[in-house]
Amino acid sequence: MAPFQEVSKQSALHPKPAGLVLHYGTAGFRTNAKLLDHIMFRMGLLATLRSKKTKATIGVMVTASHNPEEDNGVKLVDPMGEMVTPTWEGYATQLANAEQEDLLAALKDVIEKEAINMSQEANVFVGKDTRSSSVSLSEAVLDGVSALGGQSKDYGLVTTPQLHYMICCQNTQGKYGEATVEGYYKKLCQAFIQLTKNASNCTDDQKHLSVDGANGIGAIKVREMESHLKKELHLSLFNDGSTGKLNHQCGADFVKVQQKPPTGMKINSGERCCSFDGDADRIVYYYTDSEGQFHLLDGDKVATLISTFLKELLTQAGLDMEIAVVQTAYANGSSTNYLEDTMKVIVRCTKTGVKHLHHAAKEFDIGVYFEANGHGTVLFSKAAEEKFQQLAEDSNTNDERKRAALLLQNTVNVVNQTVGDAISDMLLIEAILAIKGMTIQQWNSIYKDLPNRQLKVKVSDRRVIDTTDAERRAVSPTGLQEAVDGLVKKYSRARSFVRPSGTEDVVRVYAEAETQESADDLAHEVSLAVYRLAGGVGGEPKPLH
Ligand code: NG1
Ligand code: ZN
């Protein structure tokens, strides 16, 4: 059969290093870029099969997000802009690990299991981040697509959420928007301008935001977008990639984990700042006060701001809808308490990884989901969107209800519902602050975070740790959870959990407590328990103080 001959021929140009085993993890494949050429080719093949199976356009994004420049990665995007299903993640791992001589058999296995009609046409959209390795790696993806006779469109440099957006536009025949980068800017910026039209007394100070682009793709895209904002938002861009290294001492992950500002950014006290990650699907906000103290507003604070705004609009519109916030175990305990007890919104906790949050958020009329690290978005049910529209067009509606309905409609349009999106989230947050006339300090004081600490422990095989209850409890190895429970009891308002990372070869430890010192001590003690009970390697974890 001709297509398979082409696969054999092409795959010889993208050989797999014998014995190398990689897994499709929380965010696809991710490791040192030198190990990924064959993975990219094979993901091109798999995306083509997925396209034939779903009779829709599939996306392949080449990026390693917040990882260092030397790494790279790849993930597939399903027809509605969502992550691929677990079964196909399994196929991805199978295909990636087939030795060179077994590749055709592995491919045919997927075709057979999924009963794929090979004469069905296939379409694949490909995007890449700014890593130097992304150039040849995305070409390897395109080779994979053409080897199976699929059509491809190379979007070149785009943010991860932009590629997700393109896929959704394409597969909804333009109903979601126009499948071009220009179309994306137009849709989001028009909605932003409509939203902020209502913020009549917005000063120039309020319109100013400093952005840390993590020396990545987000910086390029913010520059491209600026003219569409018609000066309604003044952005000062730092870490734009012209001199600094991608994600190095900057970006959302650095700021969140280190709890300090990025290097390369001029920060005036009290001013609103934000950081994107390397592929612009995460955002965190922060400021330093007049005493030089740093204040972080992470994904939990973002979720609180957005859900409060939406809940108020629903009340003003007189709409009775179910609104929920979806978080993970990493959400700060104070945010969960505030949302449940004060805001009275439904809160759900899922396993780490956006696909879990996304899935849970779909259950509600409005599902606001955010990971503490700043990855998140809002999902609106079809019924909710239709109600907003009916109300906005209803001539019998009073002015207050109509205004709220229009704001809800424009909120829907500024949001990228396919996946967390730093640019879209930034526009929504900026619009909310402008409409509410709220400063970043006021936003920060909605609730006070519990001090917390995240650490990593190296173990010989992180899979010895198995978890349950949305990863909040370890069921193996024996004695680990009991040890964590015992340590948590020593501290006031404390909580801690451990789980194996899906993107790095480490076990993550999270602890929060009444004081920073307690959170640091607890995190260290739990790290020691992991080290001792789960096969730690290298030196014992050292105390933080
Ligand atoms: P892992 O490495 O599985 O903890 C990290 C983040 C996730 C998610 C993925 C994908 C934390 C604690 N974990 O996963 O939330 O964003 O990366 O990028 O932030
Ligand atoms: Zn990212």
Key descriptive features of the protein:
545 residues; alpha/beta; 5-stranded mixed sheet; 18% strand; binds 2-acetamido-2-deoxy-1-O-phosphono-alpha-D-galactopyranose
Unreliable stretches: none
Q: What percent of the residues sit in helical stretches (DSSP H or I)?
A: 40-55%
Q: What is the helix tally?
A: 18
- Please describe the biggest sheet, giving its number of strands, its sense, and whether it closes into a barrel: 5 strands, mixed
Relative strand content? 15-25%
Question: Are any ligands bound, and if so which?
Answer: 2-acetamido-2-deoxy-1-O-phosphono-alpha-D-galactopyranose, zinc ion
- Name the strands of the widest sheet in spatial order: 1-3-2-4-5
Shape: globular
Overall pLDDT score: 96
The radius of gyration computed from the alpha-carbon positions, rounded to a whole number of angstroms, is 23 Å
Q: Got a strand count? A: 19
Distance between the termini: 65 Å
Structural class: alpha/beta
Description:
This protein is of the alpha/beta class and 545 residues long. The protein has helices at 2-12, 37-54, 86-97, 103-113, 134-147, 160-171, 181-196, 217-225, 252-258, 299-317, 333-342, 354-361, 382-393, 399-414, 422-436, 440-444, 480-488, 516-533; strands spanning 29-32, 57-62, 71-77, 123-128, 151-157, 208-212, 234-238, 273-276, 283-288, 294-297, 323-328, 346-350, 366-370, 376-380, 452-457, 466-468, 473-476, 495-500, 507-512. It has a five-stranded mixed sheet, sandwiched between helices. It has a five-stranded mixed sheet with strand order 7-6-8-9-10, sandwiched between helices. A hairpin with a 4-residue loop joins strand 16 and strand 17 (473-476). The radius of gyration is 23 Å and the shape is globular. The mean pLDDT is 96. The structure holds 2-acetamido-2-deoxy-1-O-phosphono-alpha-D-galactopyranose (NG1) and zinc ion. Residues 26-27, 65, 330, 352-353, 371, 373, 375, 501-504, 508 line the site of 2-acetamido-2-deoxy-1-O-phosphono-alpha-D-galactopyranose.
